[in-house]
Amino acid sequence: MNASVQHESKTHQAVLRVQGISKSFGDNHVLKDISFDMQKGEVVSLLGPSGCGKSTLLRCINWLEIPDAGHIRLNSERMGYAVNGTKVGDAQLSKMRSKIGMVFQHFALWPHMTVLENVMASPLHVQKRNRKEVEQEARAVLKRVGLEDKINMLPSRLSGGQKQRVGIARALAMKPDILLFDEPTSALDPMLVGEVLEVMRDLAAEGSTMVIVTHEMKFARQVSSRIIFMDSGHIIENRSPEEFFDNPQTDKAKTFLHSVQYK
Amino acid sequence: MNLSDFQIIYDERDSVITGIQTTLSLVLVSGLASVLFGLILTPLFFSKVGWVRGSIEWLCSAMRCSPFLLFVYVIYFGLPSYGINFDKYTSGLVAMIVYHSAYMAIIFRSAWVDIPAEILEAGTAYGFRGATLIRRIIGPLLLMRAIPMVGNQWIQIVKDSAYLGIISVFDITAAFNSIQSIYFNPFVCFIVAGLLYWVFCLLIELIVNLVARYARERIA
């Protein structure tokens, strides 16, 4: 009884609810009826072979791709739709998106802005907050990712690892409810991966709600509260990292873990 | 060709200076105005409304594929029959601005298409949209990416201005044409005129190179 009450209240406060998401590109069914919930402070790693739909799922969450079917709810607000069920306009969508921080594989920093400007841009021009306050917070998040001495540099002058940390700072500056990471270290030199993972590890420890698409298995195991394993557009495992890595239930997951040489 | 030919040009410096001033003002005004109007027109290529996209495509195509001289004739000789009268300088200027704005719009469109998709997507993901997206992210990037092509177009503008002598705008070409018709020294006159255009273009190249250097580390 007690447990079920707890469960109820947990479900109620889900930060993210993904309900029956399907998405096709032409004849290619990339996502097939994907559902899962995320509680506040949870870190979920999305794993699976390339082409299994992980990135598309991430992009559906913030409506960069519009799913063919299903709902995304962020703090019970339905992405892309108003309360009465009608599609929302660009203005409302932009407001919803600014509660989601996204970190891109190839950084996607705005190259004409300095590091500080990149981090300040959305809070200032989209959220329309006070400049002084925004700048203070931007300096603080840049310090948090260890880049306080690079604030006036252009992205083109930074290393890949530094760029990605700016990317993370940019996401944090919006004070998002959830952070999405789309293969944040895949484009980095192996020796630069560590500094980015370290920042992400800190964020996880501080209780950020994060969805991470990654190929860094050790990292996924260490930081995740849950692993979602996908194959051909389906979720086929959704379990704790220990269970998933030590005792995968499906052949697909076994094959996958074998192929990425996870030991 | 001898020294006295240059002496003649020096003696006629008043009309040479008038010619230079005219060309300079034509080039400056139409060079800047065409960039401005080009920037205003460019978003129309990406409009969600079909007929807006269609219209701008056709307008720019028509401009780009009509000879500049013919277009000048239309403005100066054609429009008065519909009650629209410009003096020769204004006609020339209007023709330059309209014609080259179309080119600039096409240049900016290609620069826009060329911006890496992920950079724009990051804008969308972070809530930028419509005018804010254009002003803060697309605009600065496409301007900087377009600099070399805009420089080329400015050089084209310098050279196209020489056509305006045909409607008696007293530019550099017209000034030297009038001098050689009095003193019969066409070779020296036209060579000197050509050198002046070259100096104009060198100045443009200088400016463009400076700005391009600034832009290079800011575009990707």
Q: Kindly provide the radius of gyration of chain A, computed on alpha-carbon positions and rounded to a whole number of angstroms.
A: 19 Å
Structural class of the helix and strand makeup of chain A?
A: alpha/beta
The third-level CATH topology of chain B is MetI-like fold
- In DSSP terms (H or I, runs of 4 or more residues), the helix count of chain B works out at 9
Span from first to last CA of chain A?
40 Å
> What's the CATH H-level superfamily name of chain B?
MetI-like
Count structural domains of chain B: 1
Shape of chain B: flat
General form of chain A: globular
Largest sheet of chain B: none
Looking at how many chains there are and whether they match, the oligomeric state comes to: heterodimer
Per DSSP, the total helix count of chain A is: 10
Radius of gyration of chain B: 21 Å
Which consecutive residue ranges of chain B, at least 5 long each, have pLDDT under 50? Answer: none
Biggest β-sheet: strands ordered side by side in the sheet of chain A:
6-7-8-3-9-10
